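input
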Amino acid sequence: MELCFYNAVMTGMSAKGTQFTYVNQLASSDKDLSQRAKWFTCACCPPNVTRLLGYIGGYLWSFDAEEEKRSVQVNIHMYSAAQLSIPIGKETTEVEQKSNWPWDGKISFSLRSPSEVTTTIKLRIPGWAEGWEVCFIRTKTRQSLTMHRSHRVFRINMSRKAT
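output
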C-alpha cells in the first residue's frame, strides 16, 4: 500500500505542488527522462491528488466500536502522523500516531481510552519489512499479542485512563 502511495501517487506532484507528471519517477532514466510540467491540457492530477488526500484517513486506519461490549478495534493499515477519535456512547477513545515515516522507521502510538474499554489494535506489518519490534512504554494495562495474517494484534484492557 505505502509503496504505491509514496512511489507512484506522491511522486506525480512536486513537493511544492506546482508541477505534475504522469510518468512514474522510478521508471525515469537518462534516455527517457521524466520531467514535471506546470500544467497539462487534461489536468486530472491536481483534483485526483486532492481527492486522495481527502480520503487519506480511510487508507491509514479503520475502526469498529461496540458500545454494548465496551470495546473498540482499530486496524492500522499505513503509518503517518495522525489522530483518530472514536465515539463510544458519550465517551471517546483516542489513538494518536507520531511518525516521520518513511524517512524514519520509528512509529509511536498513544492510546487514551475510558476505563473498562477493551481496545484491540491491529498493526499491519508490510510484507517487505525485514524486522519489527514493539515496545510498551508507560502503561499500566494488560496486553496480549497475537498474529493474524499480515497484522500484529494487540488487545489492551484499560483499568483506568492511560497513555
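quick obs: The helical segments are 2-9, 45-54, 56-60.
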